[in-house]
Structures are given as structure tokens and as C-alpha cells.
Amino acid sequence: MDLQIKNLLKTFDGFVALDRINLTVEEREFVCLLGPSGCGKTTLLRIIAGLMPYDAGELLMGGRDLGAVPARDRGFGIVFQSYSLFPNMTVAENIGYGLKIRKGPRDRIAARVTELLDLIKLPNVADRYPWQLSGGQQQRVALARALAVDPSLILLDEPLSALDARVRADLRAEIRDVQRRLGIPTIMVTHDQEEALTLADKVVCMNHGLIEQVGTPQDLYLRPRTRFVADFMGSSNLLPTAWVREAMPHLLPSRPDGAETAYEACVRPERIAVAPVAGGEGRVIDLTFLGNIRRLRLSWRGRELLAETHQDPGVAPGAAVDVSVDADACAWVRA
Amino acid sequence: MTMPALTVPDKTPNKTQPRRLRRPMDERLLYGACVLVPVVALVLFFLLPLGTIVWRSFMEEAGGVGLGNYLALFRAPGTLRAVGNSLAVGTATTAVCLVLGFMVAYAVQRTRIPGKRFVSAALALPLLAPSLVLGLGLIFLLGRNGLVSNLLGTRLNIYGFPGLLIANVLYALPQAVLIIQAALRQSDARYYDAAEVMGATRWQQFVGITLPNVKFGLLSAGFVVFTVTITDFGNAVTIGGDFSVLATEIYNQVTGQMKFGIGAAVGILLLLPTGVAVYIERVAAQRQFGTASESALPPVPDYVPMRDVPLFLATMTLALSIVAVVATVLFASVVRLWPYRLDFTLKHYSITLSGGYDPLWTSLAVSAGAAGIGTALLFALVLGLRRMPPGVAKAVYLLAVLPVGVPGLVLGLSYIFAFNLAGTPLHMLYGTALLLALCNFYHYHTQGFLTMVTGMRAVPPALEEAASCLGGGVLRVLGDVVVPVMVPTLLSVFFFLFMRSMVTLSAIIFLVTPSTNLAAVTVMRLDEAGFVSQAAAFSTCIMAVVAAAALAMRGALALVIRKKAA
Fold this sequence. Notes:
The complex is a heterodimer of chains A (335) and B (566). With 335 residues, chain A is an alpha+beta fold. Helices cover 28% and strands 31% of the residues of chain A.
């Protein structure tokens, strides 16, 4: 089943939290709602879950209007940032809770719990209590609890934010794997662009209650349409049209029509090629070693540029360099 | 951020039809009833009596409505003296309690003196007994026929101001310590680390960080002590002697001279200072606890001989004095003739007053009733309040915290006016144990309510949401999420109401009848009749019951926590 959101409006005391949002989540699709805090992504998730009312618009699941359906009857699974396992229940009781509510037979519940514990690779924790598990383990159990009832939609509210970097990476891979295998449409809220890029089929980049851009991770990274998206999805060089006309005229043909200040060129740092050339026009301002990449700040034709390379460029601060950018390396964004 | 789920008011800027999340019918019915029943009860058993007493204070004896009762008060020299005395003893008690209370709280919370558990236990003793037991103990120790007079061969006179001051300090100190201790607990070790790094001395840290951080706690404790003192009846009646205070004045006007109108007017007079004190205390408490941060690290005290040794001696002396006063009552109850013939006997335990131990059983029933009814009503109220629109919730909250501003004596008197009216349906309740239970519950309504609110705050909203999203209905969410988290709170509120009901005297003094006499009243009657040893024996029985209840609560709480940890 697919989820359709049409013209969804949500205000808090006159403050517009979601401004007529339109979005479709296809069957089997993994959608990430990405944006800075306060952009409305969590509000949107809570409205989809049925935990919060909305002012206007439509919410359709497989064509059925969800407006009058309370959270408990929507049949979705949800995982919170804070794990939110029931402290008074064992892991098995937590996972089997939704099935118990649906009055499933006891042996069926037990079988399902075992199956899910295998799925989350924690086969031996059934009788433990939540506080006896690590954060990562608790979050896996929370995921299993959400999956137990065969939800028609999974909602993940920053499920990885409270975890350590290593655990986060492991669990990220696991969530992706499980979602692919089960094919349940999933919506995840995150403010971490790397998480969104690696997990999502479709990224929804939000800002101030508006959707800035919807697309595949590649779309958002390589072809951002607004300055906000370009900025939020990794670092970029944003170059005004007038400067491009002087310094990089070969980028101009791809520019959409519009006023001089309406568009800027976005060039990702790794698309700026740097070569040490005696008497070159550019100067290296400084150089940062980040392990797998090296980041250079350059001064070139009156602007400061950011470049990244995987190989040692063989330059030191102050060195003269040549700078080149391919014609297809630039995306024009709305300023 | 936690959104107050489902209660956010819909406001649409451009005239669209708001899409409210329609909550299922069962949910709306349940939460509606949860709020409605306790609120109706609050109106019937709190607002209505209170309104009646205000009205009665304007009803003149000769008939007609006017300020006659108030004018009569101010013409009577006795009342003015009582007001002055009440203020004097209230102020003195507050000052002493703040100094001693801060000392004890600081010693327990911020130093490494030994015997902290003993100090805390000793300070809990006065809470286990009716207030007049302290008066009784003091008389045994320092009275005309007390131990000290007997040893010194002189006749000390403790009745009046000095006796009342000591008894009130002993009675109110535990409450002051609890509040100041809570304020001291709020601090963050990192403040002190920062000050240490910047080179502040211990004294500078104390003056610059510790004191400013507890100032609202001190303010709060001061008002609580003041309120408790000027509204307490038990101590005033046992050890006050001729030193009349407002509490005894009301009692004399009503039961002695049957001047109900003037009694009501004194009641209203008593309402004013406590009302103000309670209001300021609330504001102070909010300021104090508004600054708490979740990630605070508690300061870890270190051992400083210059500070800890004197504090240890002073604190121990205080704790031992409290133990001595209470222990004297126990001891006096089992000797032939205190303090002259100290051979062991149980004869005082055969109570000669008519009814014998019946009042103790009545007290047990009344207290269990107050605790049971009270816990159920408060739980329902707090549960329902969370789903009410903010405006309604705020109004109900205000109503629910109002009873703390009404002294027990005033509440008890108002029950006479409201329920002793022949021909009204409520008259059926008059003279029943149920009305006593209700009176005790509403007397301590606010404290129970606030405990319940705090407990409910600990229920994580995300857990309820998780249960809802998994398909849980109202009762499911209640049984599987709310109640398990709330069990310790429910236990605390139940036992709090039970223990307070067992020992309180002031509210029910007007409501007891020969068939529904209560334990604390019996102690007072025995004392008045001169059977002091029997009064001590009866007090011992009350303390035994309340101590057993306190132990039962600890046991139950430990069990709950152990089960959770198992």
C-alpha cells in the first residue's frame, strides 16, 4: 500500500509548522525526512502516526482516508529515538505486546517473537528486561516490536541519534537490510544527511515547514535545486552568476533562464581539480588532513574555494596551483 | 520536546475546516468521567463547606446578615490576644525551624558526618504521631511533675509560650528539613568544580553558591512551618495552657460557648495568613524547581573536620532530643507513676474512658477509607487532566491545590455547617465514618494531588504512544504503561493519606461523635481528664499502627522496585 499526503497543513497557535505538504510514499519505499531541527519533520511523522491532529489536507493509506483513524487502529509500527521499551516487560513481552493486544494465540506469539529475535540477531535476550540491554540492543528490540504486527508502514523517529557512532553504523545497515527484505514502506526522520543518503530510496529535504526538494539521494547530492539543499547535503562551493561568467564561463550553458541573482552555481569540493603548477593562478590557503581525504582552501580569481582530493596533491600552504572544473560538475541552485 | 499529545488547540489561519484527530468514544468517556467525578466531589466536600463557612460568618446571632461576628471579635480582647499570640509563636517557630532545619539538612546532604540514617529516622518520628504526643512528651520531661523538675527539685513551668514553641519546633522541623534537603539536592557538582578551579574558598563557595541556590527552599520551608504552626491544634491544647492561640480560640468559641458565627469568623481570620503563606510558598517552589537540569551531577561531599565535627554534635543533640521526647511517652506508658514510681506495668493500657480501644479501630477504618477513596479519586483526576484542554486543566489544577490553604480546624468547622443541616440529602452523611474519611482526605488533598502529578510526569509519553501505535486501547495503555510506572506513587499517596488520617486532630475534632470517636481525639480527652499515662499508652498504640504502616509502605516499595530489577 502507498501513503499519500495531500496539502497537509499544521499550525501551532498561528505558527505554520507544515505548510501544505504533498508527498507520496510508494510500496516498499524507504523515505527519509531530512532537515534541521524545527523544520517540521518530526511533526509530519507524528501526524502520519496519528499522534497529532492536523489542520487541513488529506492523509490516504492505500486510498483510505486516515483522518478519522486513531493511532491504535492505523496498524503502523513506530520506533522512537528514546527506545521507549516498556520497562516492566521482558524483551519477549515487549515484542509480543502488539500481538497480545490483537489476541493472537500464545504459541503463535512465541514463535513470532523467536523469529523476530533471530531477525534482529539477538536470539538470547528474550527473558531480559530493557535495562539489562545496551542502547543498540534496546533499539533493535524496539524495531522488532514495531515489526511484530506486520505493520503496513514503519515510522522511525531518529532511531539512531542516541547511539554511538559504531553501533549507529551497524544498526543503520541492519535497518536497511530488514526493510529491503520485508518490503514494508518506511519513513524515517533524521537530521543526519549521511544517514539519509545511505538508507533512503527517496530523500525529502525539509526546511521551515516546507519541502525544499524530493528525490533520490543522488538527485539531492548531485543536482540540488535550492541553495538550502546544496548546503545541507554536504559542503559545496556556491558561486554567483556574475563571478562564474568571468571565471568559469564554460559552466554557463546549463544555467536556467532567470534574473542574475536568481541562481547560483553549486560545485562540490571533490569536483574541483587542483594541480601544482609553478606560476599557477591559485594559492593554497591551508590544508586539512581528514584521513581518507584532504581538504584544501584555495584562493582563486578573487574567491575562496573549497576542494577535496583523495590523493596527496603534493602542495603546501602558499603553493601556487592550477584550478579546473568540468562543465558537468556544476548544478544551478535557486539562491 | 514532548508535545502535549492531542491537546494542541487547532487554529487555522485561513478558515479551513480543522481536522481534529477524533479520539475514540471509549477514550473520551473514560477521561471525561475521570475528571468529572473527582471535581464534583471536590465541589461537594470542599468548595461547598468552605462557601458555607464564609456565609455563616456573616450570619449574626440575632439573625440577619452583617459584619456583627467580626465586630464582636475585635471587641473581644481575648481574640486580639489570640491573634497576637498566634503570630508571635508562629514567627518564633519559623525562625528556629529555619536555622535548625538548614543545619540538619546541610549536615545530612552535604557533609560526611556519620549517623545520617539515624538523624533521618529520628526526624521522621514526629510525623508518625499526633502532634499532641510531642506536647505530652515535653510535659513528661519538663512539666511541673516532669522528670527534670523532679530531679532538680524545682517546679519548671513549661506551659504557655516556651512549651508551645518547643513542641511546634519539634513538630514542624521534619517538614522544614525535607524541603531544604530537597533544595540542597538540586545542585550541580560542576558549579563547585568551576568555583574551585577559579580559586574560591569553601566559605566563598558556601556563600556564593550554596546559599543562593537554596533561598527558595528556605522561603518555602519558612511558610510551611508558619502555616503548620499557626493552624496546629494538638500542641496548643496540650501544652499551651492559658496561652490562647487562634486554633484554641475557635475550638472554645464553638464547643465551649456554642458561638458558631464567631467561630466561623475566627476561621476566616485563620484562612487569611495561611492563604497568603501557601500562595507565596507555591510561587517559591516553582522558582526553585524551575532551575533543575536533567544532566546535573550531585555534589559529592568531602570530610572537613572544622565543619563536620560541630555539625555532627549539634545534629546528634537535636536528633536525640526528638527521640527522647517520643521515647519518654513510650516509657511513661509502661511505668506505674511517672516520674516517681518507675516499676513496669501495663495497667495504663486498659483504657478507662468509655469505648476503650474502639476509637483506634474507627481510626483505622476511617484512615483506610480516606486513603482508598483518596488514592482512587486523585489517580483518576490526574489521569484525566492530562487529556483536558489546557484551560480546563489549569482551572481544575487550581481547585485541586486550594485545600492546602485551608487549616484543618476551619475545614472541620465548615463540615458542621454544610452537613449538619437537617432536611438536606447531605445530612445523611453527618456523623458517619465516611464523612470523617472524606474530611481527612480533603484536608490533605493538595499534597496527595501534587505527589500524583509528579508521579504522572514520570510516565514517558513515548511509551504511551508506542502502546497506542501497537493497537492498544485506553485500558491497555493504562494497565500496561501508566499503572506499572505509577505503582510507587500510588503506594506513597495511599500510605501518606493513611498515616496523616491516623494522626490528624484538627479537622475531625468538630466531627467526631460518641459512636465515631477517633484515636487522636481520645488521646486529647484522656489528657484533658488527667489520665496522662493512659494518654501516653493510647499514643503508643497510634504510633505503633502508623509505624507499621510506614514499614508496610517501605516493604511494598522495595518489593515493587525489586520486582522491576529482577
